[in-house]
Design brief:
One of its GO terms (molecular function) is oxidoreductase activity, acting on paired donors, with incorporation or reduction of molecular oxygen. The protein is of the alpha+beta class. Helices cover 50% and strands 7% of the residues. The protein binds protoporphyrin IX containing FE (HEM).
């Protein structure tokens, strides 16, 4: 069998070689080129990176030369005039693409926009891409996504570099930024970074694994593409790998499309838009077309931009004088009180020239994308037969000293200041019909990101040694050594990004640490704050009215007394539920949910007469109760977290974490829920004092419920950590005058001291200039009072951070504080609980 195979191979090779030799002899006037071997042609002479190998060959054989890749003729163009000839006179003839194995599997059998042959199908795809995905209108509509992703990058760097120069690795951050930008445009999802769409962690992991493999295989060389005989074998298993990955990516992309089709995601994304088109033109906008477009956006639109940014930063680090000039331009034209936006870019000529110069020296597609002649044509007088692969060496043309005076290999953005418009000589995005349709998007992303990196940070090399500029293998000409650099947040930008990067949760602890450094009264650069509900509404008539309603009609002693029955009943229900099954001995119980139910049910019964938690949800349909609980859960997740846009006006323009939209949805649901309750009461014309939903705002509900449950949980946790206190409380409960319960009150006070549920109260805003501790506090300053820190001040409290002096017992309850505006316990309290005889007695009665 193996001898038979061997002989067949030999015969086929011999025949092919004869054919090749005959062909090359027959074809006169081909561009010159190096001698070649039978069967493999010049493949043995090719070394990576190919653009450099081709450049060397062009020095010997001329600006238009030919090679044989196995049995396929390849013409390499290395002059601007010849490139222009390719994309003007020969533009249509050369608008085809050669087919490779990778295109069969990861290019939907070469039907995607990048790979599809010139013709009606390509024209349609190109129209869809340019009009419906990459048009200026669409790109503008995705502006917020770009800004948000770039700001996340800035924020991440700010966190790493706020305390002076710190070493940072840029490649992964830039790559995350471009992948997230494109995927959010495509599907509304973020797949990279710690703060990736948390609901889709597994999906994000799958996506990252698939794209990693895809990018690696997309750049793989397959000898079978050129040596037809090798096509029969899959020597290194490439075809199998490609088959496997194509199935995985296809099912992943189908999942994304189905999710949008089933309405689980309903946003302004590329998929939604294409699905709308599918409804009117189902025959053309098939799922396969949509999947192909997503794939193209991912492969063509991500690495290209992040690689360019890495080169740009490397050049700036090797030329600090250029970096300095760019910074000065930003300072002069933009100033320090707002961050650069896309609309500012036209003012920043030098920054744009830096980007052009990076495009020139480091084009992300150094050989463009291979073209194929659909019929015979000529190039600089040479014959280019039908089915020839044409490669344009943009990298070499961009370094041609005849085209670029003033030392063509040096990084000099100034060369673009000349009036002749040297930028027109750039081939970075190709030319003609198949030029890059994403150029506008790429240029905007690269320039804005670079501008912000220069505006917000100081940069320097790790050592005095220059950054290594060696290129690696790969389709997009990446740097061989990933860029690592020293980075520091600019002092001036503390004012623009404020000190938010310092605000690591829990914020009150961070503020405490800052107060240790800057004194008891210190400032951070936070700006305006604007709310209208009772606890955050501005001081004035509206607030006075709300406050009056609140204290007289809702929380007055008389009203509270009238609800005593509800409170007592709910507390008894909690005690009963705890005592059930506890008579036998200690049992492990989860306390947080029980306390939350207690407080929610108490308040909601006061508000609307309804119980939404527990098995007996009186007077409430199970569905209504579930709706309520869901809204409250969402509210707990988002409603109380801080939003960067509240503090940095420029960030308000972006939905920094996508939370604005989520909060809006929660707000709408909550509004509908409360409106339903009010309407229900209105229609029943109930005028009892048992429930008055119209009086209660969401803020009151939130404030009363969460803070009470949190405080009780802290109190119980303290008691568990201090059994002697618990023991004493038990004893005194039996001995004390039950109307006083002084010791119990002290326990609660001590809990409120160490674990105030609102550790920084609520933010106050100065209505006019005033002084605090002798410092000037301007109008519109947010004032936070760090009650948590004051409660632990050793000048005020002896043994200030201890609940009780002696600790007894085994493992203590974890007392770590959670994040968020309200200071709940990080870990929900679980404890051993056993009913005391008195309870058994009461319930048996
Ligand atoms: C710095 C970033 C980028 C560079 C340097 C770049 C460069 C190129 C080049 C050289 C071509 C081939 C031109 C030719 O065949 O002669 C191309 C094609 C293409 N690029 Fe880009 N590109 C970039 C970013 C993008 C982005 C952001 C997108 C979309 C999101 C994109 C989508 C495409 C598509 C779809 C094609 C194929 C066009 C066709 O065959 O008709 N590119 N790009």
């Amino acid at each position: 069998m193996s001898i038979f195979l061997y002989l067949s191979l030999l015969t086929i090779s011999f025949l092919l070689t004869l054919k090749l030799l005959f062909k090359s002899r027959a074809l006169k006037n081909l561009p010159p080129g190096p001698p070649y071997l039978p069967l493999i042609g010049n493949l043995h002479q090719l070394k990576q990176p190919f653009h450099r190998a081709f450049y060397e060959l062009s020095r010997k054989y001329g600006k238009v030369f030919s090679l044989w890749f196995g049995s396929r003729l390849v013409v390499v163009v290395s002059s601007q005039t010849a490139a222009q000839e390719c994309f003007s006179k020969n533009d249509i003839v050369l608008a085809n693409r050669p087919h490779f194995l990778t295109g069969k599997y990861i290019g939907y059998n070469n039907t995607t926009l990048v790979l599809s042959p010139y013709g009606d199908h390509w024209r349609n795809l190109r129209r869809i891409a340019t009009l419906e995905v990459l048009s200026t209108h669409r790109i503008n509509s995705f502006l917020e996504i770009r800004r948000d992703e770039i700001m996340r990058l800035v924020q991440k760097l700010a966190q790493e570099c706020s305390n002076g120069f710190n070493k940072v690795e840029l490649r992964s951050k830039l790559s995350e930024m471009t992948f997230n930008t494109i995927m959010r445009m495509v599907s509304g999802k973020r797949y990279y970074g710690e703060d990736c769409d948390v609901t889709d962690v597994e999906e994000a992991r799958r996506f990252r694994a698939i794209t990693k493999e895809l990018v690696a295989l997309g750049g793989a060389n397959n000898p079978g593409d050129f040596i037809s005989v090798l096509r029969w074998f899959d020597f290194d298993g490439l075809e199998n790998k490609l088959k496997r990955i194509s199935k995985r990516i296809d099912s992943f992309l189908q999942g994304l499309i189905d999710e949008h089709r089933n309405g689980k995601r309903n946003t302004n994304t590329m998929i939604d838009h294409l699905l709308t088109q599918q409804q009117s033109h189902p025959e053309y906008y098939t799922d396969q077309i949509i999947k192909g477009l997503i794939m193209v956006m991912l492969l063509a639109g991500t690495d290209t931009s992040s690689v360019t940014l890495e080169w740009a930063m490397s050049n700036l680090l090797n030329h600090p004088e250029i970096l300095e000039r760019a910074r000065k331009e930003i300072d002069t034209k933009i100033g320090q009180d707002h961050l650069i936006d896309e609309s500012d870019i036209s003012k920043l000529n030098y920054l744009q020239n830096i980007v052009y110069e990076t495009f020139r020296l480091h084009p992300a597609a150094p050989l463009l994308v291979p073209h194929l002649s659909s019929e015979d044509c000529t190039l600089e007088g040479y014959k280019v037969p039908q089915n020839t692969i044409v490669l344009v060496n943009a990298w070499a043309i961009h370094r041609d000293p005849k085209l670029w005076s003033d030392d063509s290999t040096q990084f000099k953005p100034e060369r673009f200041e000349k009036e002749e418009g040297e930028a027109n000589n750039l081939l970075t995005f190709g030319m003609g019909r198949r030029a890059c349709p994403g150029a506008n998007l790429a240029q905007r992303t690269v320039t804005l990101t670079l501008g912000l990196l220069i505006q917000c940070f100081q940069w320097k090399r790790i050592t005095s040694q220059k950054i290594d500029m060696t290129e690696d293998k790969g389709l997009t000409m990446p740097k061989k050594i990933p860029l690592e650099t020293m980075c520091r947040l600019c002092d001036e930008q503390f004012a623009t990004i404020g000190n938010l990067h310092l605000l690591k949760p829990p914020v009150f602890r961070t503020f405490y640490a800052l107060s240790q450094k800057y004194g008891p009264i210190f400032s951070t650069k936070h700006l305006t704050y604007n709310n209208t509900v009772v606890i955050t509404s501005p001081y004035g008539d509206h607030w006075r009215n709300l406050r009056r309603i609140c204290s007289l009609e809702i929380l007055s002693t008389q009203r509270l007394n009238s609800f005593t029955g509800i409170r007592r009943d709910e507390t008894a229900r909690l005690v009963r539920s705890l005592s059930e099954g506890l008579c036998e001995g200690f049992t492990r119980v989860e306390v947080r949910s029980k306390l939350t139910e207690l407080t929610f049910n108490t308040i909601m019964r006061m508000v609307s007469g309804k119980r939404y938690y527990g098995e007996e949800c009186d007077g409430t349909s199970a569905e209504e109760a579930k709706k309520f609980r869901d809204v409250m859960d969402d509210m707990a997740k988002f409603g109380l977290s801080s939003n960067l846009g509240d503090f940095v006006p420029v960030v308000r323009l972006f939905d920094f974490s996508g939370d604005n939209r989520k909060l809006q949805i929660i707000g709408e649901k909550m509004d509908a829920l409360f409106q339903g309750l009010i309407d229900e009461h209105r229609s029943k014309k109930e005028s009892s004092n048992k429930s008055q939903p119209e009086y209660y705002t969401d803020q009151i509900i939130k404030g009363l419920i969460m803070t009470s449950a949190i405080t009780i949980e802290w109190a119980l946790s303290n008691l568990l950590n201090h059994p002697q206190v618990l023991e004493k409380a038990n004893r005194l409960l039996e001995e004390d005058d039950l109307t006083k319960l002084t010791y119990l009150h002290n326990i609660i006070s001590e809990t409120l001291r160490l674990y105030p549920a609102a550790p920084m109260l609520l933010p106050h805003l100065s209505a006019q200039d005033c002084t605090l501790g002798g410092y000037h506090v301007p109008r519109n300053t947010l004032v936070f009072v760090n009650a948590w820190a004051i409660h632990r001040d050793p000048d005020l409290w002896a043994q200030s951070s201890t609940f009780m002096p002696q600790r007894i017992g085994e493992e203590e309850v974890d007392m770590t504080e959670g994040h968020g505006t309200l200071m709940s316990k990080a870990i929900p309290l679980e404890a051993q609980c056993k009913a005391r005889p008195i309870i058994t007695k009461i319930f048996s009665q």
